Amino acid sequence: MEKAEKVLAKASTPKRAPKPKVPGIGDVVRDGELSFKVTRVERRSTVRQGLLAKKAQGQFVLIHVTVRNVGNEAARFSDNNQKLFDSKYREFKADTGTAAVYLKDSNAHLNPGNGIKGILLYDVPKSAKLTTLVLRDSFRSFGARVDLR
Fold first, then answer.
1. For domain 25-147, is the CATH number 2.60.40.3710?
2. What is the per-residue burial (b if ≥16 Cβ within 10 Å, else e) of 10-44?
3. What is the DSSP string of 29-82?
4. What integer best gives the mean pLDDT of the chain?
5. Hey, CA dihedral for 39, 44, 46, 48, is it positive or negative?
6. With a threshold of 0.70, does the pTM exceed it?
7. What are the tens digits of pLDDT across the range 14-73?
8. CA 146 to CA 149: how far, in whole Å?
């Protein structure tokens, strides 16, 4: 009888649903008319070299991303809409001015079906433990989260 009671108790215990998997580096996410794929994250103290070098206040974080217009109308990818967060829930904005001068495709107009490989550039404290990137079609959208850990 004890064995039957154990089986019944085990069967009636509710199982926890597995946590939904948060997309990470290499996964494709979508927000509005744009799909995104973070392909790599790197840290640097400067961008470019020689006379054109720019030194970070803390450290530069370069997030390599592929962006594709999956909608039916032209869309704009803007690094200014993409938000980076660390383990202290601090929000970092992209360094748009530096990216415009030093990097290719940090902002672009995309016709339907077209895509780009771009780099998002952030200047963050050296101690920042980055956790999440929120990729957005526009400043009005909710965005798609990507886990950077």
1. no
2. eeeeeeeeeeeeebebeeebebbbbbbbbeebeee
3. EEETTEEEEEEEEEEEEEES-GGG-EEEEEEEEEEEEEEEE-SSS-EEEEGGG-
4. 89
5. negative
6. yes
7. 667 777 788 999 999 999 999 999 999 999 999 887 778 899 999 999 999 999 999 999
8. 9
